[in-house]
TrEMBL record:
<dbReference type="InterPro" id="IPR014017">
    <property type="entry name" value="DNA_helicase_UvrD-like_C"/>
</dbReference>
<dbReference type="GO" id="GO:0043138">
    <property type="term" value="F:3'-5' DNA helicase activity"/>
</dbReference>
<feature type="domain" description="UvrD-like helicase ATP-binding">
    <location>
        <begin position="8"/>
        <end position="286"/>
    </location>
</feature>
<keyword id="KW-0547">Nucleotide-binding</keyword>
<protein>
    <recommendedName>
        <fullName>DNA 3'-5' helicase</fullName>
        <ecNumber>5.6.2.4</ecNumber>
    </recommendedName>
</protein>
<keyword id="KW-0067">ATP-binding</keyword>
<dbReference type="GO" id="GO:0033202">
    <property type="term" value="C:DNA helicase complex"/>
</dbReference>
<keyword id="KW-0347">Helicase</keyword>
<feature type="binding site">
    <location>
        <begin position="29"/>
        <end position="36"/>
    </location>
    <ligand>
        <name>ATP</name>
    </ligand>
</feature>
<dbReference type="GO" id="GO:0003677">
    <property type="term" value="F:DNA binding"/>
</dbReference>
<dbReference type="Pfam" id="PF00580">
    <property type="entry name" value="UvrD-helicase"/>
</dbReference>
<dbReference type="Pfam" id="PF13361">
    <property type="entry name" value="UvrD_C"/>
</dbReference>
<feature type="domain" description="UvrD-like helicase C-terminal">
    <location>
        <begin position="287"/>
        <end position="564"/>
    </location>
</feature>
<dbReference type="InterPro" id="IPR000212">
    <property type="entry name" value="DNA_helicase_UvrD/REP"/>
</dbReference>
<dbReference type="InterPro" id="IPR014016">
    <property type="entry name" value="UvrD-like_ATP-bd"/>
</dbReference>
<comment type="similarity">
    <text>Belongs to the helicase family. UvrD subfamily.</text>
</comment>
<dbReference type="GO" id="GO:0006260">
    <property type="term" value="P:DNA replication"/>
</dbReference>
């Protein structure tokens, strides 16, 4: 075995961490300093030098993508098969435990995971059944309350609501919600972790088994663990495991979801004999990008404080682009990526990061317009799309008739004459007799409480589900999906809708069949059956590793989901006050530091080139808003920056001759100008925002009030000036 190979490509501090004697260890270091690299090499070291079995190793990462990458990297370094090593996210690993020990966890074998949408729907129903007004008890607030308590490891019985009526009611909602989930065999995200933790506490024999097994626990991105995740690791580690955690307090960005950066300090107290290793050399970014990021984060108080330096050259300055509006911003980004591509760069090396998912739409439009491939991580994920969730709802109800969330979702999709009144009767009966909706419906039919048309409609729906179950039992998964999509009426429902949106829904449904066809059963879940595994896969992975993973495509994602990743070319879009930092962070002063850490995370993803852009005006909720550049831009010293204001060049008299001339010609050609309001026979009224091309090829971009932005050929569009 060649030990030096494992230490190749590491600096002294990294080597110290990788080759340390077996013990507890904290690697605390800034972005791009090689923490993840150290973790990966350490796993290989444990196996090859310390002769530890992969079976005894548990590695926790933050996303499924990171887990897959780590497995691959370790296999490359260690050159052996890691099949028996447990590596995954907290949720993924806890889910695996619950599946394996469903009885000990007090769950039915076919338990299903519900996402936050399903959870909200369920809560709405519960609020209604408790006669609580949604205005006084917004479902989202109840959801936040329940998830927050679960993240802290608290069941209703642990909570003392004191004499406060609102708190009392929230507690009661939590109780009723949990009872209803338990009856239906449903598990929400926070519940996965809570149950896995309770499994340790309530089943000492299981805990002993896993403590015996996992001698080595390694956790990446430790600064973003919450209380329950920390407790889970703490209990599992007991007094014998060796725990290595790596993290960076400056990249703690999930405080809003209950993550506790203090866990880094707590670790040192709770895990005896821990050593701390600091890494200070950054290998990712050019000096300009690194120094600018360091200066930005220095504005935060209460940091553990780290020095990061690089041997790299200054590199290009950070470009700050001031856009006229969000469409101009998208166009600029696309044109820079085109330049990059023309010089031989790969699209996949370019990432666009934004604060909130909604910002992706305009960018997507710009890419579609140019015919440039792009991929979205997170956000509008495949399995989160409406039509996919409808189809999965059928699959889930076929799999488990007591799945209330699925029942609610599809009982009247497509519409089959089951009205709100009938549904209310079902819900009330379910609530009164502690039944699931399916059981309640059966009872209502048997007792003839439902009669006539309503009864027929409900019976028809239930027959459909039962028939589908029988008919698809022996089918292969993908044939089953196809049958369900057709027989349920979903396909014809969307076919009957007109327009592009409906078309893309049909395409998505087709893609679901493809997804089922290419679904590979994870070895460790073989016992649970293919359908169950597929349903869990849909709920857990929600679009990570999309179908077109091999196409060269620009990567679009939120700043949050960019954590841990790196790209040669990074754009941060929409860096405006009210967007980033978000309005919410501005309203609640203490969230500003976390937004700045998010900005630090974003900037430090860039290796060669970083471009930050903001728009002077932006359409939000269909309204034009004027924005000012984010304070974070002001915090980057000018010496690292080059400002770009193309529009200013157009409007500044001294510069205008060069750039505005062709535009003026087009304007003369077409008779239209930017900002002008026009009318289209089909799309209605809108404002001209841009144009390109000449003569027959002249096109204008119009932002229509009703249908949004469109590019139109002037010769064909028959636009009328208003
Ligand atoms: P983040 O905080 O963003 O998660 P990190 O500390 O985990 O960053 P890595 O992703 O492990 O950093 O490393 C950043 C980049 O630097 C990677 O491309 C990695 O391969 C490279 N790198 C790390 N250490 C070295 C080294 N000693 N020599 C050369 N390259 C290195
Ligand atoms: Mg990392």
């Amino acid at each position: 075995m060649d030990v030096s190979r494992l230490l190749d490509g590491l600096n002294d501090e990294q080597r110290e961490a990788v080759g340390a004697p077996l013990s507890n260890m904290l690697v605390l270091a800034g972005a791009g300093s090689g923490k993840t690299r150290v973790l990966t090499h350490r796993i290989a070291w444990l196996m090859q030098v310390e002769q530890q079995s992969p079976y005894s190793i548990l590695a926790v990462t933050f996303t499924n993508k990171a887990a897959a990458e780590m497995r691959e990297r370790v296999e490359k370094v260690a050159g052996s098969n890691m099949g028996r090593m447990w590596i995954g996210t907290f949720h993924g690993l806890a889910h695996r435990l619950l599946r394996t020990h469903f009885q000990d966890a007090n769950l039915p074998q076919s338990f299903q995971i519900i996402d936050s949408d399903d959870q909200l729907r369920l809560l709405k129903r519960i609020l209604k059944s408790l006669n609580l007004d949604e205005k006084q008890y917004p479902p989202r607030q109840a959801q936040g309350y329940i998830n927050g308590k679960k993240d802290q490891g608290l069941r209703p019985k642990h909570i003392d609501a004191g004499g406060f009526p609102i708190e009392q009611n929230l507690l009661n909602i939590y109780k009723v919600y949990q009872e209803s989930c338990d009856r239906a065999g449903l598990v929400d995200f926070a519940e996965i972790l809570l149950r896995a933790h309770e499994l340790w506490l309530n089943k000492p024999h299981l805990l002993a088994h896993y403590q015996e097994r996992f001698k080595h626990i390694l956790v990446d991105e430790f600064q973003d663990t919450n209380a329950i995740q920390y407790a889970w690791i703490r209990v599992l580690a007991g007094n014998s495991a060796n725990v290595m955690i790596v993290g960076d307090d400056d990249q703690s960005i999930y405080g809003w979801r209950g993550a506790q950066v203090e866990n880094l300090h707590k670790f040192l107290q709770d895990f005896p004999g821990s050593s701390t290793i600091r890494l200070e050399q950054n290998y990712r970014s050019s000096a300009n990008i690194l120094n600018a990021s360091n200066e930005l984060i220095a504005n935060n108080p209460d940091r553990l404080g780290k020095k990061l330096w690089t041997e790299d050259k200054d590199g290009e300055p950070i470009s700050i682009y001031c856009a006229f509006n969000e469409m101009d911003e998208a166009r600029y980004i696309v044109s820079r990526i085109q330049d990059w591509q023309e010089k031989g760069g790969a699209l996949t090396d370019c990432a666009i990061l934004y604060r909130s998912n909604a910002q992706s739409r305009v960018l997507e439009e710009a890419f579609l317009h140019k015919g440039m491939a792009y991929r979205i991580y997170g956000g509008l994920r495949f399995f989160e799309r409406q039509e996919i969730k409808d189809a999965m709802g059928y699959m889930r109800l076929i799999n488990n008739h007591n799945d209330d969330a699925a029942f609610e979702r599809i009982v009247n999709t497509p519409t089959r004459g089951i009205g709100d009144r009938t549904l209310d009767i079902m819900r009330t009966t379910a609530r009164q007799h502690q039944l699931t909706l399916w059981q309640a419906s059966l009872r209502l039919l048997e007792e003839k409480v439902l009669a006539g048309r309503a009864a027929n409609a409900v019976r028809g729906f239930m027959d459909l589900i039962v028939d589908l179950k029988v008919d698809t039992e022996a089918m292969q998964l993908f044939t089953m999906v196809d049958t369900v999509v057709n027989t349920s009426g979903l396909r014809s429902m969307y076919q009957a809708e007109k327009g592009e949106k409906a078309q893309s829904r049909i395409e998505n449904l087709n893609e679901l069949v493809t997804a089922a066809r290419s679904f590979e059963m994870p070895e460790e879940l073989e016992d649970m059956g293919e359908l169950n595994a597929f349903l869990s896969h849909a709920a857990l992975e929600a679009g990570e590793g999309q179908a077109d993973a091999f196409t060269d495509a620009v990567q679009l994602m939120t700043l949050h989901s960019a954590k841990g990743l790196e790209f040669p070319m990074v754009f941060m879009a929409g860096v405006e006050e009210g967007i980033f930092p978000s309005k919410m962070a501005l309203d609640e002063g203490d969230r500003l530091d976390e937004e700045r850490r998010l900005c630090y995370v974003g900037m430090t993803r860039a290796m060669e080139k970083l471009t930050i852009s903001y728009a002077e005006s932006r359409r939000i909720y269909g309204r034009e808003d004027y924005a000012s550049p984010s304070r974070f831009i002001g915090e980057i010293p000018a010496k690292y920056v080059e400002e770009i204001r193309l529009r200013a060049k157009v409007t500044t008299p001294t510069m205008s001759s060069k750039i505005s001339k062709p535009r003026a010609t087009i304007a003369q050609d077409t008779g239209f100008k930017i900002g002008q309001t026009v009318k289209h026979f089909k799309f209605g009224q809108g404002d001209i925002t841009s144009f390109e091309g000449m003569g027959d090829k002249a096109r204008v971009q119009v932002n229509f009030t009703d249908v949004g932005s469109k590019w139109l050929l002037v010769t064909l569009a028959k636009l009328e000036a208003c």
